[in-house]
Specification:
There is one protein chain. The protein is α/β, with parallel strands linked by helices and about 425 residues long. It is about 40% helix and about 20% strand. The chain folds into 2 domains: about 230 residues, Putative sugar-binding, N-terminal domain (Rossmann fold), CATH 3.40.50.10840; about 170 residues, Four-carbon acid sugar kinase, nucleotide binding domain (Molybdenum Cofactor Biosythetic Enzyme, Chain A, 3-Layer(aba) Sandwich), CATH 3.40.980. Strand 17 and strand 18 form a beta hairpin. Helix 2 packs parallel to helix 3 and helix 12 packs across helix 13. The chain is globular. Bound molecules: adenosine-5'-triphosphate and ligand LCNOYBR7. Keywords: ATP-binding, Carbohydrate metabolism, Kinase, Nucleotide-binding, Transferase.
Length: about 425
């Protein structure tokens, strides 16, 4: 297999978002969980998205895992590697976007790296280096209350400079709008000053197409699904990849019981849970009991098992920013987050033992914990449920045939859970 594009995603929902974008743009794509084992049978593809769970771990570990993924991808012929980060630039001043970018840049010897989290289809745009989420700057968006990495600065030139060893410059929208050559010239100017990374403005998909053309000439880029779209279109338009038709289905029906798990506390997910209450039984977990080790996962399974024969169920830990802050102040942010993620993994494991083969998971960290526990090595990409969220068919899972949907916290419409299950047959 010779890859036209290699991708390293810093969480599992982000990886399926990117795999969805690449597939829709005509690239045959698989999503792997971690660096694939040598015996994992992969189909002939144009792009591999290696999913890591590296967004919120210690920076040194994020660097070493990303590097292992890069080595694997380049070993399969990938000239260009995209480091996929969140479209809301989720990170802390200690990392991990900057440290991973610095290392991958040094490894491939790039003078300067294009960086943009813009993803206009989901309302993420970058102007004068400032990231907007819909109509508001990042620091006024719900991301200011994120449980693990609250975002308080919308100026990405500043944010990335605090995390990176290199100086960070800007390629502004006027330059991007002018032409690919103008972007090339601006990058050369910045690189000439010793600047190693350039936050790049983008508001429309056509901006990302220009950025993608230039990025594809480099060895490394950093961004969200928008730059993935730009790179994919560039690979197709320059004839490096022959466009495949986007998958129109997910293969044979899987059937059997279905369930949803929500660990995301985003506003979008809270609304989706409220909506689901009207159409399926919903159990709200008690985070205090989880952190105290009070058998909350077993309670959830005892609640869910007898209901599965009648239709889907939803189990949620999700809570308002105030309730999350209260739990975190009592137990610490990481300890609370980790305990809740592990409880979600326990519940997922128990649900699969009870016969569930169609599973929707909301939240990147939550999805990471669940997919790891279910020992799923990879996914084929099926139909799109909502922007950034495809139906995934598990490859090589211990439980056999399974369909999953891994939803980024902020993605999906109000009826997301029933929309997803409606497409997962
Ligand atoms: N009630 C709660 N109190 C405190 N923390 C919680 C609670 N419910 C969930 N969490 C934790 O909040 C974090 C949510 O992160 P997760 O990545 O799953 O969702 P997200 O950030 O909204 O999604 P994404 O990363 O896809 O945007 C997890 O660590 C989860 O365990
Ligand atoms: O880019 C996004 O917003 C998503 O793919 C994601 O990474 C959320 O975890």
């Amino acid at each position: 297999m010779t890859l036209a594009l290699g991708c390293i995603a810093d969480d599992y929902t982000g990886a399926s978002d990117l795999a969805n974008t690449l597939t829709r743009a005509g690239l045959r794509t698989v999503q792997t969980i971690g660096v694939p084992a040598d015996d994992l049978a992969l189909p002939e593809v144009d792009a591999v998205v290696v999913s890591l769970k590296s967004r919120s771990i210690e920076a040194g570990l994020a660097v070493s895992r990303s590097r292992a993924a890069e080595t694997w991808l380049r070993g399969r012929g990938a000239r260009h590697v995209l480091f996929k980060i969140c479209s809301t630039f989720d990170s802390t001043d200690a990392g991990n976007i900057g440290p991973v970018m610095d290392t991958l840049r040094a490894d491939c010897g790039e003078a300067i790296v294009l960086v943009t989290p813009a993803f206009p289809e989901t309302g993420r745009t970058v102007y004068q280096g400032n990231l907007f989420v819909g109509a508001v700057p990042l620091n006024e968006s719900p991301l200011k209350d994120h449980p693990l990495n609250p975002m308080h600065d919308s100026n990405l030139v500043r944010v990335l400079a605090r995390q990176s060893k290199t100086q960070v410059g800007l390629v502004d929208l006027a330059t991007v709008t002018r032409s690919a050559d103008a972007v090339r010239a601006r990058l050369a100017e910045l690189a000439g000053k010793g600047i190693g990374a350039a936050i790049t403005d983008a508001v429309f998909d056509r901006d990302l197409e220009t950025i993608g053309l230039v990025a594809a000439e480099h060895r490394l880029s950093v961004g969200a699904s928008g730059i993935g779209l730009g790179l994919a279109r560039a690979l197709v338009s320059t004839g490096k990849v022959k466009a495949a038709s986007a998958s129109s289905g997910t293969g044979a029906a899987v059937g059997g019981p279905s369930a949803c798990l929500a660990g995301s506390c985003s506003q979008a997910t809270l609304q989706q849970i409220a909506n689901a209450e009207r159409v399926m039984p919903v159990l709200h977990l008690d985070p205090e009991q989880i952190v105290a080790g009070g058998g909350e996962a077993q309670r959830a399974l005892a609640w869910a098992r007898p209901r599965l024969a009648d239709g889907p169920v939803l189990v949620a830990s999700s809570a308002t920013p105030e309730a999350v802050a209260a739990v975190q102040s009592r137990h610490g942010r990481d300890a609370a987050g980790h305990a809740i993620e592990q409880a979600m993994a326990d519940i997922a494991e128990g649900l699969v033992q009870a016969g569930v083969r169609r599973l929707v998971v909301a939240g990147g960290e939550t999805s990471g914990a669940v997919v790891d526990r279910l020992k799923i090595p990879g996914f084929l990409v099926g139909v799109e449920i909502a922007a950034g969220v495809p139906v995934l068919r598990a490859v090589g899972a211990e439980a056999g045939e399974m369909l999953l949907a891994l939803k980024s916290g902020n993605f999906g419409g109000p009826a997301f859970f029933s929309d997803a299950l409606g497409l997962m047959r």
